[in-house]
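Weekly sync notes, structure subgroup
Attendees: PM, AL, DS (notes)

Item 1: joint prediction request from the bench team. They want all two components modeled as one assembly rather than separately. Inputs as received:
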Amino acid sequence: MIALNSVTKKFGTFTAVDNITYRIEKGEYFALLGPNGAGKTTVLRMLLDFIKPTSGSITIDGIPVSNPEARKRVGYLAEHHMIPSHLSGLEYLRRHASLIGLAGKNALMEVDRLLDVVSMKGREKEKSAAYSKGMKQRIGLAAALLGRPKLLILDEPVTGLDPIGIRDVRKILESLRDNGVTVFLNSHLLSEVEKTCQTLAIMNNGKILVKDSIRSIIEDDETLEDVFIKYTQKGK
Amino acid sequence: MNSFLKITGYTIRDQMRHKSFYVLLGLSILFVLMIRGCYGGQYIVNGKQLDNITVAWYVSKIVFQVIASGMFLIVILLSMKIFSRDHEDGSLVLFLSRPVFRRQYILGRIAGTWFLCLVFMFILHATIFLTVWVKTGATIPGYLTASLVCSINLLFIAVSVCFLSLYLPDFISAVFTVGILFVGYISDGGHQILNSEILKTVVPSAAASPPALWRILYPKVYMVQAYADSIIGQSSFNNMGPLHPILNVSFFIILITTLMLVVFNKKEI
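Output from the run, pasted for the record:
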């Protein structure tokens, strides 16, 4: 589904991502972990073609990410999801629906369904300026789920959500996993990753330190936190 | 529907949501309507009283230029924040996380802003046209066509401001664009005055020297307005250089838009 091939990204002399190569298969629920500044967000931004790699190539479903076709069935949720303040949640979702080619009754039904899924029914006509951070995140998640994407790219999806919101998002993501949707998750919440993900990679200083299934990485007497610290503190 | 057209539509809708847009349009129409008082006055030139139609014709030509130039400021104000605002409010991520080419986003944003300004200017010019017709019963031939001709200047300004705003702060890019227009007005306006029939009659020895190459190649925004003015008056038009000003401005629009697409394609979001 996703293939990164010898990808390097430099900002001036600083190497944010250093020659990484990995694949994420269809239906895989993948988490990218790493301390702040490890290069996770840079990888994610390159996946969406927001920034170009200095060298190497990235494809989604075999299509280079520089081709917008690659984003046809991709949903994206940013860490601090922003919605133009003059738009209501409903208008925002309709714009997303229109841009992915959903129109007419289908779009209305899909938007309506997702408002229900993210528990925003009844608040959808309010301007987003009146939304809390968590509500914006919910609308952002609904936008990411529009058009039943094959791949979801989530950057800290539970940021700003209350415990109920976190539980709701987890349930949504689990149901997506069960339906074979590929999920690329960037998160600091190790407990959430441990509960939901199948595979993970730990990144530090722009390099992938380990990539494997959670079961293979975590030994019997360990938690994901132990593993995370073990890998990211190596050599310090 | 093509993403370009969708983004054009969103741009128009987003700009029209601002109350300030309607306040500005209302005030502009009010200003234009206030001009109608001039049509009924008594004007004596060289001992002869001018009829209402002649007065209306001259006043309308002057107001035409005032509106066309005033629109420069409005298009600058609407264009200068396109990228920075989209970046800040999440619109950029909204569009580019979807299957939308960057060129569709840029062209859609610019086309929407330009179309809105074109309609704004056309409404003001049409108000003048209708006022003259109602007050005097006469129509000004070519007035509305001239308005459409001037709209090419608005597109040039929109692409210039947007391009500069990729490198410079919004306000500086606006000031820079005003500077580009100002230099053009001085250069082309000077040429028009030196080649005018009045000056040649009053000072026959005042022969205009051929303009420098940079003046011929410079964006001919003023000359487009002069050409539009000649459409209204069906008068002669003193062009500078071999290239028609519409072609000159079109060339710059294409050049700047191409550069902007290349730069924006590499821009990190």
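Discussion: The mean pLDDT of chain B is 88.
Action: AL to compare against the crosslinking data before next sync.
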